[in-house]
Design a protein that fits this description.
Length: about 500
């Protein structure tokens, strides 16, 4: 900035950036002092800024950038040494289970409090074994463990940390006990670069979370493959929806007292262009996880309504069609409106429509679930609890929710009448259902003995391969005629109603 000494009268000739000027010496000294100070201050500010950029504001922990820098330097040092002789470096990523739920139920301030307590506890546990805990984002924390032996030792250490952190705490005046899920990746086996290692630890965390709460998993390449497949499946499902590759098959429900077809359940199938007809078990979980079940489910509701009208146009009497509503669909505010709109659009009487929900919906907001069930009932739509007995609901659920129908899960039907325990459970559910004036449906009936058992206990309706597999819609009219012929001849109630011999009931 300043160029040349001019000597006389205490003047410097200074380059000011634009021109040469004479500057008094005093001014120059002050300017120099200011500049030196400023440079010093700037140095401090820059360091503080760099530090700040590596710190999380809420907890004071490192942030993701800070952790990555530290991990990089640990790995660089390791690569310079003889890595084979040194213990592996493990990275742990942990996440608070159901943190969103906590935020939504107790508020964000309470959520912040929990984050601070978890951060403090993690730091306390990890201090002498790790390189400092980082808050990656939201409710996810991570740290590096440079010398813990092997994978198993890392998992044992993380498990101890998680146990310590998950002790109870008071939040907003209430006792709260968090659970944490964790994923671990180990250098050099799971990745030689910091970014890859961290990503693989996060993949292990996602795999752990998919298994439930409080699970700890170490990385396995199969996890990445699974997630890639899921990603692929997700984009294929989107294409399937756009290209109209979904179809509905229908499984008859049979009235046990008459042997007549009382309705059908619509069951989703994917007519895959290269893999053929795929059952829901191949894609429904990914659809549910990604939220694609919402548009797919809407398509199902409309397709089932269209089909009911078509059967009626073909001369069939009205048949009640049951449609499965996934928990994610049911959670949506517009679920009742979507059904109402489809019924109106296709001119279907709500009395011939049934929604099947699972016990899982009672795990969320119970008042909300109750409100929606009431709204369906007011519309005239029937509500059934599907797969009853395998979920979280207790028998008292039936008393509290105004449903019309309960479907006993096929895992209880499978071993009746041979298993006294299952026989007792099935009998109790039928009896309780009747005392609450509910229709009771037995699912998965495959043998004449199962049918007779249910008939003797006055189960109202049954569904299962013994009567018919799910079939394409064009096969339903024939099945209906066969069943009503048996009903008229009086064979329906006393003889096995198996239609397998008619060659109509197996799924193509
Ligand atoms: P679910 O609603 O309980 O449907 C009954 C399942 O049991 C069907 O399997 C049916 O084919 C099978 N099944 C019926 N009778 C028998 C039997 O006698 N023995 C045995 N072993 N199985 C029998 P599917 O069609 O593979 O559907 C499986 C599940 O996928 C359904 O269970 C339902 O939870 C779900 N799902 C099907 N369609 C839809 C849909 O449109 N939307 C949603 N959200 N879920 C659907
Ligand atoms: Mg069902
Ligand atoms: Mg079921």
């Amino acid at each position: 900035m300043f160029s040349r000494f001019a000597g006389r009268n205490g003047l410097w000739v200074a380059w000011t950036g634009h021109s040469l000027r004479a500057v008094p010496l005093g001014t120059l000294a002050l300017t120099a002092a200011w500049c030196g100070g400023a440079a010093f201050a700037l140095g401090i500010a820059a360091r503080a800024w760099r530090k700040l950029r590596r710190r999380d504001r809420l907890t004071g922990l490192y942030n993701g950038r800070g952790l990555l820098t530290r991990l990089q330097s640990v790995l660089t040092a390791r690569a310079a040494d003889n890595a084979d002789l040194l213990p592996p470096v493990a990275v742990a990523v942990v996440d608070i289970d159901r943190f969103r739920w906590l935020n939504e139920s107790l508020g964000y301030k309470a959520g912040d409090e929990v984050l601070k307590v978890v951060a403090r506890r993690l730091e306390g546990c990890v201090a002498d074994r790790g390189t400092g805990v980082a808050r990656m984002d939201g409710d996810t924390f991570a740290w590096v463990m440079p010398g813990l032996g092997d994978r198993a030792a890392a998992a044992r250490f993380v498990s101890r940390v998680v146990d310590e952190v998950c002790k109870g705490m008071t939040v907003g005046g209430r006792l709260y006990r968090p659970t944490l899920s964790a994923g671990i990746a180990v250098y050099p086996d799971d990745g030689a670069e910091a970014g890859v290692l961290l990503r693989h630890a996060a993949t292990a965390l996602h795999a752990a979370q998919a298994e439930g709460r409080g699970v700890i998993r170490t990385y396995d390449p199969a996890m990445s493959r699974r997630f890639q497949e899921q990603f692929h499946l997700e984009s294929e499902l989107l294409r399937a929806l756009a290209n109209g590759e979904f179809v509905l098959h229908y499984q008859p429900r049979v009235q046990l007292s008459t042997g007549a077809m009382s309705g059908v359940e619509a069951l989703l199938r994917w007519q895959h262009p290269s893999l053929g007809l795929l059952p829901p078990s191949r894609f429904i979980d990914v659809a549910e996880e990604t939220g694609l079940i919402v548009p797919i489910g809407e398509w199902v509701i409309h397709a089932a309504c269209r089909q009911v009208k078509q059967w009626q146009a073909e001369g069939l009497p009205p048949l009640r069609v049951a449609v499965n509503i996934s928990p994610r669909q049911f959670q949506r505010d517009d679920v009742v409106a979507v059904v109402a709109q489809a019924l109106e659009e296709h001119g279907v009487d709500p009395a011939w429509f049934e929604v099947e929900i699972t016990e899982q919906v009672f795990m969320g907001n119970i008042d909300e679930a109750n409100r929606k069930i009431h709204a369906f009932r007011r519309m005239g739509v029937c509500v059934a609890i599907d797969d009853f007995g395998v979920g979280y609901a207790s028998l008292s659920t039936l008393k509290h929710f105004p449903v019309d129908c309960v479907k006993i899960d096929r895992s209880f039907i499978r071993d009746v009448p041979a298993s006294p325990e299952d026989a007792a459970i099935v009998s109790a559910v039928i009896e309780l259902g009747h005392s609450l004036r509910l229709r009771v449906v037995g699912e998965g009936v495959e043998t004449p003995e199962q049918r007779m058992f249910l008939e003797a206990r006055r189960c109202d309706e049954v569904q299962g391969y013994y009567f018919s597999h799910p079939v394409p819609p064009e096969k339903i009219p024939n099945l209906w005629r066969n069943m009503s012929r048996r009903e008229k001849s009086g064979a329906g109630a006393s003889l096995p109603g198996c239609l397998c011999t008619a060659g109509l009931s197996s799924e193509p």
